[in-house]
Design a protein that fits this description.
Layout lengths: L1 E9 L7 E10 L4 E5 L6 H8 L7 E6 L9 H8 L2 E4 L11 H6 L8 H9 L5 H10 L15 H14 L4 E5 L7 H18 L2 E5 L3 H7 L2 E6 L2 E6 L6 H8 L28
Parallel strand pairs: 3-7, 3-8, 5-6, 6-7
Antiparallel strand pairs: 1-2, 1-4, 8-9
Helix pairs in contact: 5-6
Length: 273
């Protein structure tokens, strides 16, 4: 499904400074992997590269058997419709209703007329949104306005939007940063169970080391824009984990609670609207 070959990639569109260097990565359909590393290690940059949101400075990206940057703009946008990128801070209009925000995850698969009609009057599609919200403990927020939600609730609305997406590839950036440890574990379990049941591929960046080690069969560790480990968590010992975060003063312990209040870079474009 995904292949990166010798990839140098920037942190943001248009930048000529490499945030990733010499990255090789292959991901099969249906896999679940956690991207780990200190802040600034390149986790978000890797997700943006996988989403074809940033043009490589060198190397090759292949998604679903195609090089997105060898395609015309319209074809590249169509290819992006096969993935859903959920940024750490979901781009939710403050006056929008939660039901509308969640159903936006279906927009890539709908025509313009149906999209406008559904988002203006959700109607029977509201049941779909309600079911997704219930999985993340937000069943009572269906008709709430986004600006009445807490930061953690907004993050879970973003996950519910991802949940209704029909994209075979889910790319998720720090989805637990505003959640307490209990809700973080519940939200991650709901996300992984849904991906597994529906055969979605899931790549998720995390600072919660304990969840990365216990919940994911594959860990990709980044340091200084390079992959320093790729394999099962059992193959990366405690010394490796400590070294991964050693240069960061606020390095997480090996059993890390959710990082309250962390702020992610803005997503340059809505790849899962």
């Amino acid at each position: 499904m995904i292949e990166l070959i010798g990839l140098d990639a920037p942190a943001a569109p248009g930048s000529q400074v490499a945030a990733l260097r010499g990255v090789h990565l292959r991901v099969q359909a249906g896999e679940q992997l956690a991207l780990v590393g200190a802040s600034g290690a390149g986790k978000t940059s890797l997700l943006l590269a996988l989403a074809a949101a940033t043009r490589p400075l060198a190397g090759t990206v292949r998604l679903f058997g195609q090089d997105p940057w060898a395609l015309r703009s319209a074809a590249r946008q169509h290819l992006r419709g096969q993935l859903c990128l959920a940024p750490q801070q979901p781009p939710l209009p403050p006056r929008q209703r939660v039901v509308t925000a969640v159903l936006a995850g279906r927009l890539p698969g709908w025509g313009l007329a149906r999209s406008l009609a559904t988002l203006w009057q959700p109607g029977t599609q509201a049941t779909l949104a309600a079911q997704a919200l219930a999985e993340f403990g937000l069943a009572d927020k269906l008709w709430s306005r986004v600006d009445r939600l807490s930061g953690g609730e907004r993050q879970r609305v973003g996950l519910a939007r991802l949940r209704v997406s029909q994209a075979p590839l889910w790319l998720v950036d720090e989805p637990l940063s505003a959640l307490d440890p209990v809700r973080a574990s519940q939200a991650l379990a709901a996300l992984q169970d849904a991906a597994r049941a529906e055969g979605r591929t899931l790549a998720c960046s995390l600072h919660q080391v304990d969840l990365a080690r216990s919940r994911f069969p594959r860990v990709v560790a980044l340091q200084g824009g390079r992959i320093v480990y790729d394999g099962p968590p059992a193959g990366f010992d405690d010394a490796g984990w400590q070294a991964l975060y050693a240069a960061q003063a606020d390095a997480p312990a090996l059993a890390t609670p959710a990082d309250e209040g962390a702020v992610a870079p803005a997503c340059p474009q809505a790849l899962c609207r």
